[in-house]
Amino acid sequence: MTDSTLSKKLCPPRPDEDLIFRATFAHDRFYVDVEHGNDNWNGRISFPADGEGPFKTLSGAIDGIRKSRTSVRKRATLFVRSGNYFVSKPIVLDARDKYLSLVGYPGDERPLLSGAHKISGKNFEPFNQNVFVASINGKCSNHIFLGRKRLVRARKPNLRRWTGQDMTGQGPYLKIKHMFHNSFGCNRKGSGGFRQEECHWGNKNGFEFKKGDIDHKWSNPETGNILVFHAWTAERGNIKSVVGNHVNFTSSLRSPIGNHPKPSGWRYIIEHIFEELDATGEYFCDEKRKLLFIIPPSEALKHEDVFISSTRTLFVVQNTKGIEFVDLEFRHSNDRAKVKYNPRPALLEFNKADVASIYHCAFSNVGHTAIFLYNSSTNVKIAGNSFYNIGYIAISTSSGTRNLLIRRNTFEGCGVWNMFQPSCIHVRGMKKIIVKENRISYTPYAGMRIGSQQTFKQDYVREGEYVFYIEKNDVRNYGLGILNDFGGIYLSPNVACSGPEATSTFCHLHARVAFNTIHHSSAYYYGAHGIYGDLAVSSLTVEKNWLYNLDGAAVVFLCGKRNFALNNMIYHIDKSRVLGTCSVIAGRGVLLKQDLTFKKNVIFVSNVYARMWRPLDEWIYDVPQVDGNVYYFSHENSSQVVDFFPKYKSWNEWKRSTFNDLRSVIDNPQYWNLAGKDYRLKRTSVARQIGIQSVDLRKVRSRSGIC
């Protein structure tokens, strides 16, 4: 990750001071001031005077407001004055706190709400060479920061250069030598296929390493983890023992080593071994001796403090209505062991909450999830916030969510720690889920995920309506060459929709993905797609997006029904397919029924090796409806035109055998400015002449997000 723009300026900007005071004029007003307050005061005035004044702590303020507010039917505002508020355990807001707003006090610096213990940089003493040590109070953490920069658990191999914004899954890597159990269908050579399905369960318990990669002289190997890569996930195994050239885990991995030979690359990283503490930005935390060892940049401890994340959740909003968080900064939360796909714990949790809002807040240095909505939370707005350096997911919701708006937020750095298909946004829901005008960047997997839930019947919504509206978002710089098989926008049902049972009528997600700019992706081995409908997900409309500079297909519909790709502007640079369709892999050995429509798209192909389909993509039921498109091959390579189209057909063979693309043309679409990545169509474009609309998404790319 490059130096963050969010760490260099105030993001989001502070709301207008007069507007805040006017908006809260008729409210019950209370104040909390960590520097000058007292929880025995009534909290009715903003500064100490005549034996009264603001509350001192957030928990004390909540208790005091419950006792003295005039009515829960009238909105109350708690103004939080500047300062650092350490939250040691979750503050629960319930029915007693209806219509309560927590607002950063205008004119002050934005208040910081933190779940971390602070150690002054001056408390560290030299240990040896570049290593410094300090005592800690409390437990160790996977999330420790030097100032705003995330420290890395002592690792092997070392990062090439520590920046403080690094993904824990980024290379370089070590390589597994052999598996514990080899067979004809699952072996180190990968002769069992691209996906080796017959791997022995014992390959979940460890592996054989190359000489010198793991040291038998480590004093306490059990303090360490090994981060093992699969295809679209990576997971940690706790070291139990090192015997000979075998490393054994204390508990089994979720997936056996060897399932994905090429996408995994047989990669692993060793973490949190004291003897590997040898590079700037690394740390080792000794739980038994209560000591923290770090290697800081030169002179850094003279002006920076160290923060050890300890509190998992700062606020729980449950069974209540009208809670608002406005203009606050949330920093430092912890995770818990073996959460894997579970979005909890989250820094802010909303449990069956109604009419909740989060405006103009800054979330950073989060251990796991920043915001999680569950148990049918409804009518929630999350707008104008920034999310930076997030351990797993910034915003996650459960499948019962209704009437959700996620708008104009900026996300930079998600999946920093947990790599079970991480993303910045993962929304599930059942009615009117709107995600629009956000900017998302720097994740090792998807930019945003939609679904992975129980889906719906085809007639769940009326014609022209959707459950999910994904519009005007800018998704960029995702994948980072770490994981595989994802999209900038990744949509899927639950697992029950894959396999032969996918012909069920309950695989419809009902999503519209429109007016988004999705660009600059990279996978470790394959599949950093643009928009990806996986596992037979159905009822997707993908229209009027800009899709360019991708390390994968522009659009993938991996089986499914009633899927449409319409009027998209595509600039294809990858050697792989432009459009992904069904295959026997998706159907687990059975080719599923699929119907898709691909019309009025512009496909500018700049890679001479690219093809419309891949060899594995197939159909045996309904021929896809493909027409009214413009194709252009910048290399003018005659062999590419000869076999570019599905099933390696030439242009004429494709049209004659399938009656597709009869109104399509091969011609230069005349994008406005290729060098400037402006994919509007010029007025003289042949695409306009055959009915394709020009799509102007320059403002989406430049103005999305809050900063």
UniProtKB/TrEMBL annotation:
Q: Which Pfam families match?
A: Beta_helix
Q: Which domain of life is it from?
A: Eukaryota
Residue span, Right handed beta helix domain: 351-455
Extract the signal peptide range.
Answer: none
Q: What are the coiled-coil residue ranges?
A: none
Specify the protein name. Right handed beta helix domain-containing protein
